[in-house]
Design goal:
With about 150 residues, the protein is of the alpha+beta class.
Length: about 150
């Protein structure tokens, strides 16, 4: 008697109109290299732009919190100390991640989800991020930012 093959139903992933790609440096004690991460996307451009701005502000705050050099420059330190008194709701300080700030991004229906970005870590340095339109780079103003050069 022949056995019937079990049918495997493949789930098709939703294709979004807008994606965000973050470019960053990573590595370990012996080497470093440049990489990028493309995040799941959005169909609403305004939500994608707001998330891009959240990523930028979150990383600048994360960089301040984890960088020893900022303790030297008083004007920079004072600016971030004031920022900490009214942290935006999309920055969450978590005890599970050694007190590092987590990031909340928006879905198209404006619900938030929380993550610890892969470009935040001891060996990681974010270069910048951009919105990608249908898998092509978007050239619209406000759809990218650069924090440092490669």
């Amino acid at each position: 008697m022949a056995r019937k093959k079990k049918e495997v139903k493949e789930e098709k992933r939703k294709e979004y109109k807008y994606l965000i790609r973050a470019d960053y440096r990573t590595g370990d004690s012996f080497q470093s290299y440049d990489t990028s991460e493309t995040m799941e996307g959005w169909d609403d451009l305004e939500v994608a732009k707001e998330n891009l701005e959240r990523i930028k502000i979150h990383y600048q705050y994360y960089d301040y919190k984890t960088s020893r050099i900022n303790f030297i420059y008083k004007p920079e330190r004072d600016k971030w100390k004031e920022f900490e008194t009214n942290l935006p709701s999309f920055i969450v300080i978590s005890k599970d991640y050694l007190g590092y700030p987590l990031l909340k991004l928006l879905t198209d229906d404006r619900n938030e989800y929380q993550l610890f970005p892969s470009w935040c870590g001891y060996f990681e340095r974010l270069y910048g991020a951009e919105i990608i339109l249908n898998n092509k780079r978007a050239d619209d103003t406000g759809m990218s930012f650069k924090l440092r050069e490669y």
